[in-house]
Amino acid sequence: MEAIPIVIFALLGMTIASFLNVCIDRLPANQSLVFPPSHCAACNRRLAIKDLIPVFSYLWLRGRCRYCGAAIPKRILWVEISTAALFGLACWQYNLSIELAVALFYRCIFMVLMVIDWEKGLILNKIVFPAIVAAIVISAAFSLFLPDIEIVPFIGRAAAGGGIMLALFLLIVIVSRGGMGWADVKLAALIGLVTGFPLVFVALLIGVILGGVVAVLLLVFKIKKRKEAIPFGPFLAIATIVTLLWGNSILSWYRGLF
Ligand SMILES: [Zn+2]
What we know:
Layout: H1 3-26, H2 56-60, H3 74-94, H4 98-120, H5 125-145, H6 155-176, H7 182-195, H8 199-220, H9 233-256
The structure holds zinc ion.
Zinc ion binds at residues 40, 42-43, 45, 65, 67-68, 70.
């Protein structure tokens, strides 16, 4: 694979990340994605094209609004950089193929779900339910027409993955009596459908390890207090992205241990 398409897709990822940032800002507040046009959250000044160039505008303006000097959330930059990296990686993995389209779609969905849950503690139905329908349709369509493609689990495996996660998280919600919310059940079912059996266990394991490590770090460095809830959804979302990237390699490495 040549470098040029990878760079083009990384730049495309940066551009799409701007839209993902708009989704992250506006979907939880029930605001329109198109109106009003992008503006500074502090001074309400409408932003010009030169303020909206992904990554570069943030760095050039040193993370501050050109007009009022208010800090622009660092998340804007992180989402732009990581989406660029995920798009570049996807292009490198799949070349120009239908798999690339699926990989990019899922990466965008889980990026938005992850950041909204991290910032607001919300997993929005208007993202999760359409994503569940899309995952079922994609899995069914690929099972019918392109059954040999690795990135989409065969429909039976997808259903098994979704069912396992649904059952497991329902059980956790009931046992923990509100320690984990219903929203996590929906997210878990989506993750099961997208990764499928047996990769769903890789996603779950990575999510649990990642969530545990970060929770300990947050408590040790006193960024969060003991009583504060740390949402599990973002770690599951990151784990899903990692599983979609390297799940099969992780699984064969794990099987090689025994
Ligand atoms: Zn401003």
